[in-house]
Structures are given as C-alpha cells and as structure tokens.
Amino acid sequence: MGLMEREDVAVFEQVIALLEPFRKADSAITRETDISQDLKLDSLAVMDLMMELEEKFDVTIPLNLVAEIRSVGDLAEAIRRR
Amino acid sequence: MGLFDRFASVEQAHTEVKARVDDPFGVRMDRMLSATEAIIGNRPTILVGTNNYLGLTFDPACIEAAHKALDAYGTGTTGSRIANGSYAPHRDLETALADFYGRQHCMVFTTGYQANLGIISTLAGPQDFLLIDADSHASIYDACRLGTATVVRFKHNDAEDLDKRLRRLADEPGNKVVVTEGIYSMLGDQAPLKEMAEVKRKHGAWMVLDEAHSMGVLGPTGRGLAEELGVEADMDFIVGTFSKSLGAVGGFCVSDHPQFDLLRVVCRPYMFTASLPPSVIASATEALRQVRKRPELRTQLWDNVATLYNGFARHGFALGPQMGPVVAIKLPSPDLAVGFWRALLDQGVYVNLALPPATPQGTALLRCSVCAAHSRLQLDKVVALTAEIGRELGVIGTEGLRAAG
Asked: Given B9, B145, B153, which is nearest A51 (Cβ)?
C-alpha cells in the first residue's frame, strides 16, 4: 500500500470511529454511507461533528465545503486534503 | 421525486409533535390585551415568550407617533430605499441611531434579518473569510450562504478557539471578518467580548457585532454589550433590530468606516426590497427616544429578570449560565419539553418551545423572555405554575425549595 493510501485509510478509520455513536443498528459505516440520511444526524449535529473533526485533525473545514459533503467517503477525503 | 421529499424527516417530526399537542409552531394570538397578556383560544395568557424586553409595544407615545405618521405619510412607501422609499422619517431615524451610537453612519434595513443578511454577505468577498460563532442566529448562517466568502465556525463564545482559527488563516491575504452576537437568543448567554476584541485586534481582523438582544438591555445608556464592557472602539460594525427592545420590526447597521455609504448601492438585501412603512419608522424612533430618556425601563427589566431567573433557580431548574432577559429552562428531552410547553399554555402561560436543530447542542428548551412591563404578580405566578408542572413531570424534585446555587 502506498503512503497516500495508508494515510487515507488511517483518516477513514478515525472518521468511522467518531461516527460510531450515530450509526444505525444493523448497518456498517462505509464510504458510501450518506451522512444526513443513513446516520442519526440533523443539520446542526453534522456541523458539530465537523468541529470535532477539525479539532481532532487540527484542520479547518470551511462551511462552504461542508455543504458538498454527502457521504462518509466525501468527509474523509475533505479532511485528508487539508 | 416529490418536490418536498428532502423535508421528510422534518415533516415526520412535526407530525409526531402535532399528534400530541396543538402545533407549537402555529400558536395564534387571538387578541392582545397588553404587552404582557393575550387571549389565546379563549384563555387569557401571560406572555413570557416574546422579545418585547421594554414592553413598548403598547406605549402610548409610540402608538401616537405611529398614528401621526400614518396620517402624514400614508400606509407604506411602496418602494426601495434607493428608489422612492426613503422618506424623511427613514433618514431621520438613521441620524438618530448614528447619534445614539456615536458613529458617522447608519443604514436602516426593512428587517433585522435583512440587516445581517446584507451586511455580512456584502462585507466579505471571494478572497475573504467570515468567522462565525457556532451558535449564530439563522440570519448569520444564511448571510454566509448568500455571500461569496470562505466561512469558518469557531466554538461558541470561545475566544481561544477564535484565536486558533485566525492563526490558521494568518498566511491568507484576504480580509478576516469576525461575527458575534451580544446576547445569544436561545440560552441568553453573553459573548466574552473583551477577550474576543483582543483576539480580533491581535490578528488585524474586522468585527461585526449583532446587538439584537442586547440593545436597550445592557450598557449605561442601553447601547448594548459593547458599551457594557467598554469595547465599542473595537466593534467596526454594529447591527441591531427594531423587533425587540424597540417593539416594531426593522434593522440597522452603524459604523465609522469612511466608505460605509457605498453599501447602499451594493447591498442587495437593502436595495431590492421595499422600505419600512413610515408608521413603523415612527414608533421605532419614539421607542429609541425612550430607551435614551427612560433608564428606569432597563432597571425595571433587570429587576424582573432577577425575579424570574432566581425563582426558577430556587426550584431547581437547570438554566442558562447567565442572568439576562432571555431565561432558558433546559429539559432532558424534546418529548418532555413539548409536554411541559403544552401544560404551561393550558394553564395560561405562553413561553417559546425551542427544539433541535434550532438549539445549541441538541438541547430542548423552554425559552422565556422577560419584559419590563411584567408585574411581580405575573412573574410569581409563572414561577409557581412552572414549578408545579415541573414537579408533576418529574423535572424537579418534590423536596421543596432549595437555596439558589
């Protein structure tokens, strides 16, 4: 596995861990999981989650980008890019 | 795909609430008896859920001013501020507000919402950054969406977090515009403005302060939190509203920026909307005069604030961190909050029901607001009824009163 891929997996795994409390029973969290539809998160909770992730990864995720983040994969990618 | 499909979860939540109680978002004030009492259904109801902090909505002088303006100027301007909608009263109110705040310039908007929408979306451009408090009002979030700047949230009332985020942006050439509120509308807590002013100065950022809930309420002359904490010099733009202490509707922004008036021809929520009816401008103008001339309104308000806040605290309710005209009772679940809200209304007390996602951190709140015109009798009754229902619903214990913590 290359460095980029290893980093990607590391970020993704940490994101999944943070999303665990919002996981609906009987479904695993994958890259395709839709954050607002498949997880128990309303719009404010999504933004609060973003702030937690910003804190954890010491990055800034502009609110403008948050609007385009739909899936868990999108989220992991947005963090990795910063 | 149905047109409203994406609102399915909201629709479901709302339906569930309506199945239990009459729609809490559809309450109808059938008759207004005074600033503090209304008839809802057939029931005389004490109003503890308005933003009528100084009780000026039924002030005789304010009403008289509105009458005179109706006779002199008619029912409405039917035009925008940049076309035919700037009457003498509009200009005069701008002068009066600028004078009140000791600033060079003032713009009056048709609503406070539009004042935020317009100022915040226009001040910061595509290369710039807007830094907003996490608990910002919807009008501030909407302004960010409407604008072209990059938007960054900082932790609620956290000057250190603001500092951290400004530091991260230090290498970016664009302007940084920080937006904060004086008093937050849900929990009624105040911004740590001294610390934030220091941070803002350190990083050479601009600051927009929304004194919607603090104007007429804080400060020796009622200018708001910035006056109260002595940091007015650091506030580059102050936004306010006529719909709370001034008892009407409308918004404004004051500033000393030499190019401020340029906003009149580039700020869309100012330009592309009809201006306020002269009668509204007139009552707001008179209300402003009273804020300046009658400091006892403020004293009376804070007296009443203490009665309500301490009353709730003594019974063991979980409240917001600071005393203020907004007094929020935190409840453990939305379900309980709905039931509590309904029980209060059935007993003749109207408060605001605040549920996620409109509330910070997914809390459910009974949001009460205090009015200078509330009587001691009314407030004592509200406290007693709230305690009674609180005990019935198991929100507070039955051990009786305990000392305020």
From this structure: B153
Contact indicator for B188, B218 with CB cutoff of 8 Å: no
Tell me the three-class secondary structure of B299-335, residue by residue: HHHHHHHHHHHHHHHHCCCEECCCCCCEEEEEECCHH
Task: Tell me the CATH architecture of domain B59-293.
Answer: 3-Layer(aba) Sandwich (3.40)
ipTM of the complex: 0.80
What is the set of domains in chain A, with CATH numbers? 3-81 (1.10.1200.10)
Q: How far is B199 from chain A (nearest CA, A)?
A: 18
Dihedral of alpha carbons B85, B87, B91, B93, sign:
negative
Superfamily per CATH, domain B7-47+295-392: Aspartate Aminotransferase, domain 1 (3.90.1150.10)
Residues of A in contact with B152 (CB under 8 A): 60, 62-63
Give yes or no for residue B400 having a pLDDT over 70. Answer: no
Report the residue of chain A nearest B8, measured CA to CA. A37
Report the amino acid identity of residue B19. A
Note whether A45 contacts B362, CB cutoff 8 Å. Answer: yes
Q: Is residue A21 less than 8 Å (CB to CB) from chain B?
A: no
Give first-to-last CA distance, chain B, whole Å: 54
When pLDDT is averaged across residues B17-39 and rounded to a whole number, the result is 92
pLDDT tens per residue, range B241-273: 999 999 999 999 999 999 999 999 999 999 999
Structural contact between residues B343 and B394, judged by C-beta atoms closer than 8 angstroms: no
Residue of B nearest to A38 (CA): B9
**DSSP element (H, E) containing B350:** strand B349-350
> Which pLDDT score is estimated for B404?
41
Q: Do B150 and A64 touch (CB under 8 A)?
A: yes
- The bridge status of strand B37-40 relative to strand B43-47 is antiparallel
Q: How large is the C-alpha radius of gyration of chain A? A: 12
Domains of chain B: which residue ranges?
7-47+295-392, 59-293
Q: What is the pLDDT of residues B181-201, one digit of tens each?
A: 999 999 999 999 999 999 999
Token pair listed for B226: 């910035």
